[in-house]
Design goal:
Distance between the termini: 22 Å
CATH architecture: 2-Layer Sandwich
CATH superfamily: RRM (RNA recognition motif) domain
Structural class: alpha+beta
Number of helices: 2
Order of helices and strands: EHEHEEEE
CATH topology: Alpha-Beta Plaits
Helix content: 10-25%
Number of strands: 6
Largest sheet: 4 strands, antiparallel
Length: 97
């Protein structure tokens, strides 16, 4: 296991979930494929996954100005998965708080 890093709970993802009640987003390990993501979501949340769409994001280049000069670096690259569930299934991320 350990393919799902964390669920995406942002304004944009919440808007997508409200528009279509059966779509949820997750940040996943970059080496994971769609079948592994599907099995992991079904095992963790006891739902039926219909489709998985994935997107790879490059890390952003970041610069910071300091006393000693410009410090450059990169944010980590990541993979995002949008999971479509069977009609009627839902995931409640806030149930165990």
């Amino acid at each position: 296991m350990g393919i799902i890093v964390k669920p995406i709970v942002t304004e944009k993802m919440t808007a997508i979930t409200e528009k279509r009640n059966n779509r949820f987003g997750f940040i996943v390990v970059p080496s994971a494929d769609k079948q592994q993501i599907k099995r992991e979501v079904e095992a963790l949340y006891n739902v039926t996954v219909v489709a998985v769409n994935t997107m790879n994001y490059d890390g952003k280049l970041m610069r910071r100005y300091t006393k000693s000069g410009v410090v450059s670096g990169r944010k980590s690259a990541y993979k995002k998965a949008i999971v479509t569930l069977k009609e009627g299934d839902t995931i409640d991320f806030y149930s165990n708080i």
